[in-house]
Amino acid sequence: MIRMLLAAAISLSLSALLTQLLIDLLTRSKIGQPIREDGPQGHMVKAGTPTMGGIGIVLGTLGGYLLSDLILALTRGREGSIITRSGLLVMGAICGAGLVGFLDDWIKVSRERNLGLNARLKTAGLLGVAVLFAVLMIQLTTVSTELSFTRHGFLGIDFGPYGWTLWAVLLIYATSNAVNLTDGLDGLAAGSGSFSFAAYAVMGFWIFRQTGDPATDIYDVPHALDLAVIAVAMLAACAGFLWFNAAPAEIFMGDTGSLAIGTAIATMALAMNTHLLLPVVGGIYVIETVSVMLQVAVFKVTGGKRLFRMAPIHHHFELRGWRETKVIIRFWLIAGGLTTLALGIFYGDYVNSVGAR
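Structure (tokenized):
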């Protein structure tokens, strides 16, 4: 618990400090975000807003994760360190996805156009991060290769190492892109992500509390506390960034932040054996992605008709006359409700499983 608190405090402070420094640096350098011409016209006033704020999220999380462990190791000796291979791989995947996003953002701002890495290179980068994470998780950790809902052994479907690797790559790629689609309004992706990370922090700490007790340990996730620390660090880093990203935004997270957030959510679901609970924990991202898929499908089937005024669906509500802040807050409320539902499902399964023993 102490390390979680330390990680939160350090990540929040670093993220806020780095974000402010980025705003100052990018503003002086006149480096800003190009805006899509086919997006809502009300967004054109945002052109030139500093971007790549995800750097603060990624570095804030990394700093909170490593420094909190270092502080405990120095004050308590080696037994104070709880860094695990699983935690390092999750953190490495977050940084890797953030790097892919940074390259995309940098090309956009340096060339002053809303096109960064081409689709093939961006996809290759994300898939490379996902494959490396999945393979190393199989090789270096005791991660379960079963398809999971709330815990190891819930469904009894074992993918095997190759099947799990493919599943992990698909989950990481889909989730990172889903968060990227959601990042279209000030504070929407960071705020929604905060709810998801709060859920993983609670689940990770709960699993840790049950570890080692034969009567209650139904999870088999020995690295749960380390994952909870990363979740808390991501939550705090998003909060530090959100201070400046709240509407009207002083800085955008860019793909640096959205790809890192999506990868963090997916890799924690994989490492905690809560794969199929992910669509509930990150339900707002599922809604946004499905809206795009439906829009494209209806457009093709009907020969040009649209289901929504614009996709992703948050733009549809904007074009219906909702203020941006109203859309954001209502989507946050949905994200909070889905987080509560996910935690309820998680705890309900625990009660039923322990009670059945």
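The longest strand covers residues 146-147. The two ends are 29 Å apart (CA to CA).
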